[in-house]
Write a structure and sequence with these properties.
There is one protein chain. Strands 3-4-2-1-5 form a five-stranded antiparallel sheet. It has a four-stranded antiparallel sheet with strand order 6-7-9-8. The protein has eleven helices and nine strands. α8 crosses α9. It has two domains: 202 residues, Endonuclease I-creI; 83 residues, no CATH class. The protein is an alpha+beta fold.
C-alpha cells in the first residue's frame, strides 16, 4: 500500500472513547463522503460512498458503536478500471434522522438529493473533537505523497466554505495550511515536512508519524553528507585550479627570465611548487628552509603570480 493508504488504515482503527468525538469524526465523514436524500414523503436517508475499504469499515463501526445502527454495505467492482467502491447506506428514516440530528446537519438541506458539504461548528467546540473531525476529513477526502519523494498533505473539499473551516481547524493547531482551487474543488494543503509530522500527531497516527520521522532523518543525513561532499569537491577544484595557475606562472618565469632571477624566498617556493604540483600550502611550507606557514606560502605564490603577469603585460602577452 501507499504511505497515504497506510495512514488511513492506521487512523481507521483508532477509536475515540468519548461519544462527542465519535460524533465529530462521523460529522466529517458525513460531510466529505456522505449524501443525504429526502424522498417524496419527507423521509431521510444517508449514503456514505468511498473507494477505500478502511473508510467504509470506519463508517460502519461508528454507526454501530455510536448509534447502534447497522448500515447496509454495498460493494461495486469496476473491471475496466480495476477498482472497487464501497457504500454504507442508512435507509431507515428514524435512524438517518438520529444521525443527522447528532452531527447537526438536519436543517442544512430540505429538498431533493444533495451532497452534504456543510458542517456545524458546534461539533468541534472541544480540541479533542477538532482532532477527531480532522481525522475523519482525512479519511474521507485526504491524501499524502510518498515522503521519500516529497512532502505534501491535502484534504479536498467540495466547497470554499468547507475548505475555509478545515483550514481554520488546522491553523488552530499552529499549522500553516493553505487553500488552492483545483478545478471545481478546493484543496487545503501542507507542504512542510515538520508540519505534516505534527498533523499526523494531531490525527493520532503515531506509527505513521514515526515512519515519516525516520524518512526525514535519513533524508536530512543524506542532504548533510551531500552538502559536505559538494563543499569538499568545490574546495578541491579551487585548490587544483590555483595550483595549475601557479605552475603555469612559474614555468613562464623560468622560460623568460629564469628562476635564478627571483628573490631567494620566491625561488625556493617556485622550485618547491614545480617539484610538488599536488602539494597543499601547508605541505609546501614544510618543504622550504626555513619552513613557513600557509599564509607565508600563499603570499609568496601570489608575488610570483604578480611578477608573471607583469612580465606578460610588458611583453604584450595576455593576462
Amino acid at each position: 500500500m501507499s504511505f497515504s493508504a497506510n495512514v488511513k488504515e492506521e487512523i481507521s482503527r483508532h477509536w475515540s472513547q468519548a461519544r462527542h468525538c465519535q460524533i465529530a469524526e462521523l460529522a466529517a465523514l458525513t460531510g466529505f463522503c456522505g449524501c443525504i436524500t429526502i424522498d417524496g414523503r419527507g423521509c431521510y436517508g444517508i449514503k456514505f460512498h468511498t473507494e477505500n475499504k478502511a473508510v467504509a469499515r470506519k463508517v460502519f463501526t461508528l454507526l454501530k458503536k455510536t448509534f447502534n445502527i447497522e448500515g447496509n454495505i454495498s460493494i461495486r467492482r469496476n473491471m475496466e478500471k480495476h477498482s472497487t467502491s464501497y457504500s454504507v447506506i442508512v435507509s431507515r428514516h428514524e435512524e438517518a434522522l438520529r444521525i443527522l440530528q447528532a452531527v447537526k446537519m438536519i436543517d442544512e438541506y430540505q429538498n431533493g438529493f444533495e451532497r452534504v458539504r456543510a458542517m456545524n461548528p458546534i461539533v468541534t467546540r472541544q480540541p479533542c473533537c477538532r482532532r477527531a473531525f480532522l481525522r475523519g476529513a482525512f479519511l474521507a477526502a485526504g491524501s499524502m505523497s510518498d515522503p521519500n519523494k516529497s512532502y505534501h498533505f491535502e484534504i479536498v473539499c467540495g466547497a470554499s466554505e468547507m475548505a475555509a473551516r478545515v483550514q481554520e481547524l488546522m491553523c488552530g493547531f499552529s499549522m500553516d495550511a493553505k487553500i488552492v482551487k483545483r478545478k471545481k474543488t478546493y484543496v487545503v494543503y501542507l507542504k512542510e515536512g515538520e508540519q505534516i509530522v505534527d498533523m499526523l500527531n494531531i490525527m493520532e497516527a503515531h506509527i505513521s508519524l514515526m515512519e515519516l520521522e525516520n524518512v526525514r532523518i535519513i533524508k536530512e543525513m543524506r542532504n548533510t553528507v551531500n552538502r559536505k561532499v559538494n563543499c569538499e569537491t568545490a574546495n578541491i577544484n579551487k585548490t587544483v585550479s590555483a595550483a595549475v595557475k601557479q605552475v603555469e606562472d612559474i614555468t613562464y618565469l623560468r622560460d623568460t627570465i629564469g628562476l635564478e632571477k627571483l628573490p631567494e624566498g620566491l625561488e625556493d617556493m617556485a622550485l618547491a611548487r614545480l617539484s610538488h604540483p599536488d602539494a597543499t600550502l601547508k605541505e609546501l611550507g614544510e618543504l622550504v628552509s626555513p619552513p613557513v606557514g600557509k599564509s607565508g606560502v600563499n603570499h609568496r605564490l601570489r608575488k610570483i603570480g604578480e611578477m608573471a603577469d607583469k612580465i606578460r603585460k610588458s611583453q604584450g602577452g595576455l593576462l
